[in-house]
Amino acid sequence: MRKFTLLVKIEPDGQTMRLDGRVAWAMKQLIDAGPRGCTPITHPGPRWSDYVFKARALGFGIETVHEGHGGQFPGHHARYILHSKLTILEDMAVAA
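The structure corresponding to this sequence follows.
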């Protein structure tokens, strides 16, 4: 079992923050996705809304865009887009 940890620098002020667990995983996905953002369809995760809720509580700017989709099971999904500028200082997974 691995626990994800991410150490990020918040731009432009340079404050650092350590993120752990699923919030760290989700933030890494959002950083890597850039302006196109992430959806539970493109980046499967069990509780995206919870990860985003917790990241917002930490002060990160994350936009939610609601999108429709077709297919065999049409409906709606959220696209999450990170607007906070972050630099990853350390990206690690530790044994838990």
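Residues 21-33 form the longest helix (13 residues).
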